[in-house]
């Protein structure tokens, strides 16, 4: 659990982060959204003390984060940034091993962990371990960056626009991978982005920041349904709201009894994808199949449109 | 009020303390060759003036030591430097026995360290003031005028280096003008040849590596060897090409020195032209082509103006390097300030070495400041225009 | 040009250089036409091999000392504690580069006398500047997100310096050392005017006795040394830079 209590950061006369308090539950993904200059990155960097706050306290599992020297604290917290920041003079394996080496793990343990993470990220340790970062594609570099941040099995992972430099297709894949790994390790993730789409997609909770202040901190549905201010409303994008709301739900939750013609859609797909498919193909209903391929029922345009309406 | 120390000030104060109290201020020699005897500030200056100088440098050092306003630091360094410059002349007159023309007085380590310490302070202040290019040239002109005034006023005439000058006043100016002619002339020749060569190298890729490699190798030949090696071919030209000798081309002397400096100058000019042209943004070039400029219009209208600051940097490198290298011309009879340096080394007369070295350093220094200012002005102008 | 040609040329140059300094007699017929009045074609007042080794030793000592001091200074002014000195050190480097090597050499003589010492001082001082300047460039232009990652991974200041900053700036620092060595090799010849034992002795003997063969052999040995060392250091530089996926300035 991360408790942020009355955190403020001032540089001379400018207040970058203004009295922010929030609690992040363990094993959840919290996304901080805001425009550039909203103080979201500074807030993130105060958690691992890359920036020291002017006032306020941050507690990790009940302990003040100032009870350790900054560098020791940072070794216990994963940190991944935009443009990945891989060390160009070290191989992929050495890059991933950075924090375990700093912590003095023994060789076998480091190698086992590096191999595990690389395999998890679909990078063959034999082939890619000895390569240098510049020999990888952008998507691979990003994966190595996240693998490096996770190497020492941190409970908390901080991410600053980790997918910012990726093209849309690789970005979607990277987001899926991250969610899968978060489920597997149970890591608490705090992710900074300016992209509301990403926030709605990734976050268990979303914190919206504007001019250093925390304007709203709530579940995605809540943010979409009841934006706390005009600023949040703009950020959400009025014309996008129903579709974003649909993207939060799975098809399996919208299944109705009955059958329909044509190719079945998997129950795990988002309701938004299902609606898109229905509208595009001009059909009133689609069959839905479960993980095992068995039919679950169908989804209809009418049913989905009702779900896209503002929640009560 | 709490006193806070300036980090650089600690270094300066330490140097000043050592130089003022433990090092010698001036050296006295019975004639120009014998070993010197050290004189402290009190021994070197009249009883009233010695303590005055000591007070000035100590106060200036304290100003440097503490965190003080820039203006105060500027004043302290200037006052200390002026006092040192005037009083070293006073020391010369004071230490020279009346009517003795053989005695030599020269500044000693303490004096040089004090000058170094306060120049450091001045340099720090000027750096922190972040002067505009024109203001920097202004400071240079003021400093040059001040030194010129001191020289004309005759206050330094009792110092050894000026006695060496007094014995060689005519040849000093002759060698000086030869030095400047060598440095500037070879630069001009290098620009005339190097610019078109650089443009050609930029356009014709196959030529580039070859030309740059050859020029690189020329740079690795030690200067004295290159000077010497040119004696033979130029001697041959003088003897066999009609009219060459009449133009002043000879095996030894100025001609091989000129050619050697020219060859050394080519690399920075050509290389910087190539780098500058290669650095022109592709978008600017594409836009120029898209608007229908011919190659020639593109070169003069777009590429060359954009590459100009980089080319100027090459010219700065060449000029400063040439002013230094021209000293070596003296070894093959090419003249220049090197004549005094090598004569001085030969006679173990260090003041004579200084007579050659000081103007060389001063020239190179002035050239660097002026060209840096010009480069900065052209570069800022470009930034403003593209902004 | 075929890929193996440059390597072959380098190898040939090494062999030729070694043959020349160990057995200069073999080359006498080549140099004889350059002499007049039956003057000796091969330097006869000392062994070329000894002079070459002394020359290299002088350059090596000066460069090692200059590298240690210059890199240490550059590290100092790029730490928070020394940051105050950064602007001044930049101006000093700019000023320092205007001092011609000959002047530095000549001015060192009054301080330490004739011989190897003033040469070492001049080479050291003059060698400092390119290395310091490059080390400064290297340490101040590190990629921001890499440094951010290093801090975020929990490296201490010292660990960042040793594990990230120095390795990343290594190619640029090496470039400075390469420049410094080439300048030193040439400047060391001038050291012979203040009685240092270097290859300059051969060239100056040639100038004084009007013996072109001496000038040529002294000059060519130094030039060959410079080309080979320049080449070798560039290769190391390219290797370290390529490993990091950086473009070299070549």
Characterize this entry briefly:
The complex is a heterotrimer of chains A (312), B (387) and C (250). Chain A has 312 residues and is α/β, with parallel strands linked by helices.
Question: How would you explain this protein's 3D organization?
Answer:
The complex is a heterotrimer of chains A (312), B (387) and C (250). By secondary structure, chain A is an alpha/beta fold. Chain A has 14 helices and 13 strands. Chain A has helices at 40-47, 70-75, 92-96, 98-103, 107-120, 125-128, 138-150, 168-185, 196-202, 220-225, 230-236, 241-248, 271-281, 301-307, and strands spanning 2-11, 14-24, 29-34, 55-60, 63-64, 77-81, 156-160, 188-193, 205-210, 213-218, 265-266, 285-289, 295-300. Chain B has 387 residues and is mainly α. Chain B folds into 2 domains: 7-130, no CATH class; 169-386, MetI-like (MetI-like fold, Orthogonal Bundle), CATH 1.10.3720.10. Chain B has helices at residues 7-21, 41-44, 49-65, 70-95, 109-129, 133-153, 160-167, 169-203, 205-220, 223-229, 231-240, 254-278, 282-290, 295-325, 338-346, 350-386, and strands at residues 26-29, 37-39, 104-107. In chain B, strands 2-1-3 form a 3-stranded antiparallel sheet. The two termini of chain B are 46 Å apart. The model of chain B has no long low-confidence stretch (mean pLDDT 84). With 250 residues, chain C is an all-alpha fold. Chain C contains 10 helices and no strands. Chain C has helices at 4-22, 28-31, 48-78, 86-96, 101-112, 116-140, 144-152, 157-190, 200-208, 212-243. The longest helix of chain C has 34 residues, at 157-190. The two termini of chain C are 18 Å apart. The mean pLDDT of chain C is 85. The interface between B and C is large, with 49 and 48 residues.
């Amino acid at each position: 659990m991360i408790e942020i209590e009355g955190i403020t950061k001032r540089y001379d006369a400018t207040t970058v982060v203004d009295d922010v308090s929030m609690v992040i539950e363990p094993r959840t993904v919290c996304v901080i959204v805001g425009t550039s200059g909203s103080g979201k990155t500074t807030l993130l960097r105060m958690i691992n003390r890359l920036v020291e706050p002017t006032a306020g306290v941050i507690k990790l599992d009940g302990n003040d984060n100032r009870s350790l020297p900054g560098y020791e604290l940072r070794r216990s917290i994963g940190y991944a940034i935009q443009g990945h920041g891989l060390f160009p003079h070290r191989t992929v394996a050495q890059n991933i091993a950075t924090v375990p080496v700093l912590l003095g793990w023994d060789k076998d343990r480091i190698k086992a962990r590096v191999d595990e993470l690389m395999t998890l990220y679909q990078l063959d340790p034999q082939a890619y371990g000895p390569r240098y970062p510049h020999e990888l594609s952008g998507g691979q570099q990003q994966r190595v960056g996240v693998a490096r941040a996770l190497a020492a099995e941190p409970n908390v992972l901080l991410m600053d626009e980790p997918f910012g430099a990726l093209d849309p297709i690789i970005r979607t894949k990277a987001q899926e991978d991250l969610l899968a790994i978060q489920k597997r390790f149970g890591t608490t993730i705090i992710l900074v982005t300016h992209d509301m789409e990403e926030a709605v997609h990734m976050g268990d909770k979303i914190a919206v920041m504007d001019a250093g202040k925390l304007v709203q901190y709530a579940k995605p549905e809540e943010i979409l349904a009841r934006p706390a201010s005009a600023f949040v409303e703009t950020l959400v994008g009025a014309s996008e709201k129903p579709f974003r709301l649909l993207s939060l739900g799975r098809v399996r939750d919208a299944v109705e009894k009955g059958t329909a013609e044509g190719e079945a859609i998997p129950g795990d797909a988002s309701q938004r994808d299902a609606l898109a498919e229905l509208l595009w193909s001009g059909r009133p209903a689609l069959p839905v199949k479960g993980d095992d391929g068995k039919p679950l029922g169908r989804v209809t345009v009418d049913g989905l449109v009702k779900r896209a309406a503002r929640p009560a | 009020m709490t006193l806070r120390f300036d980090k650089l000030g600690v270094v300066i104060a330490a140097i000043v303390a050592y130089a003022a109290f433990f090092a010698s201020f001036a050296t006295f020699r019975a004639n120009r060759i014998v070993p010197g005897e050290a004189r402290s500030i009190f021994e070197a200056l009249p009883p009233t003036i010695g303590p005055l100088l000591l007070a000035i440098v100590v106060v200036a050092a304290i100003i440097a030591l503490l965190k003080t306003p820039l203006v105060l630091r500027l004043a302290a360094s200037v006052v200390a430097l002026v006092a040192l410059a005037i009083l070293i002349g006073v020391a010369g007159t004071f230490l020279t026995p009346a009517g003795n023309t053989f005695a030599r007085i020269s500044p000693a380590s303490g004096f040089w360290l004090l000058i170094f310490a306060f120049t450091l302070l001045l340099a720090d202040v000027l750096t922190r003031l972040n002067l505009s290019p024109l203001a920097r040239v202004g400071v240079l002109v003021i400093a040059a005028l001040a030194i010129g005034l001191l020289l004309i006023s005759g206050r330094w005439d009792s110092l050894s280096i000026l006695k060496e000058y007094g014995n060689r006043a005519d040849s000093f100016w002759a060698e000086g003008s030869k030095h400047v002619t060598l440095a500037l002339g070879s630069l001009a020749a290098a620009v005339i040849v190097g610019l078109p060569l650089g443009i050609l190298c930029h356009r014709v890729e196959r030529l580039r590596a070859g030309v740059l490699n050859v020029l690189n190798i020329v740079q690795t030949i030690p200067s004295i060897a290159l000077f010497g090696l040119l004696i033979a071919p130029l001697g041959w030209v003088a003897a066999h090409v009609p009219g060459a000798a009449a133009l002043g081309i000879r095996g030894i002397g100025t001609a091989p020195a000129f050619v050697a400096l020219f060859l050394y100058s080519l690399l920075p000019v050509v290389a910087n032209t190539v780098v500058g042209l290669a650095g022109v943004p592709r978008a600017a070039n594409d836009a120029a082509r898209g608007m229908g400029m011919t190659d020639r219009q593109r070169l003069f209208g777009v590429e060359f103006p954009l590459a100009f600051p980089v080319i100027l940097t090459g010219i700065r490198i060449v000029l400063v390097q040439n002013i230094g290298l021209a000293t070596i011309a003296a070894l093959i009879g090419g003249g220049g300030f090197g004549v005094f340096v090598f004569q001085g080394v030969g006679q173990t007369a260090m003041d004579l070495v200084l007579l050659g070295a000081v103007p060389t350093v001063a020239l190179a220094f002035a050239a660097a400041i002026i060209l840096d200012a010009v480069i900065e002005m052209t570069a800022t102008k470009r930034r403003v225009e593209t902004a | 040009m075929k890929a193996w040609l440059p390597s072959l040329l380098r190898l040939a140059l090494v062999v030729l250089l070694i043959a020349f300094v160990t057995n200069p007699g073999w080359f006498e017929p080549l140099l004889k036409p350059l002499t007049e009045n039956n003057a000796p074609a091969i330097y006869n007042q000392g062994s070329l091999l000894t002079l070459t080794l002394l020359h290299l030793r002088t350059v090596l000592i000066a460069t090692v000392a200059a590298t240690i001091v210059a890199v240490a200074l550059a590290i100092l002014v790029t730490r928070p504690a020394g940051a105050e000195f950064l602007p001044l050190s930049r101006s000093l480097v700019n000023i320092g580069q205007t001092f011609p090597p000959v002047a530095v050499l000549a001015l060192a003589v009054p301080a330490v006398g004739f011989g190897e010492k003033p040469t070492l001082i001049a080479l050291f001082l003059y060698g400092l500047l390119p290395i310091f300047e490059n080390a400064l460039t290297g340490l101040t232009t590190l990629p921001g997100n890499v440094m951010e990652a290093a801090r975020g991974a929990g490296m201490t200041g010292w660990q960042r310096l040793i594990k990230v900053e120095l390795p990343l700036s290594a190619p640029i620092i090496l470039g400075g050392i390469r420049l410094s060595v080439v300048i030193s090799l040439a400047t060391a010849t001038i050291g012979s005017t203040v009685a240092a034992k270097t290859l300059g002795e051969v060239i100056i003997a040639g100038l004084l006795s009007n013996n072109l063969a001496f000038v040529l052999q002294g000059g060519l040995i130094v030039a060959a040394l410079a080309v080979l060392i320049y080449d070798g250091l560039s290769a190391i530089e390219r290797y370290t830079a390529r490993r990091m996926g950086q473009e070299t300035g070549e």
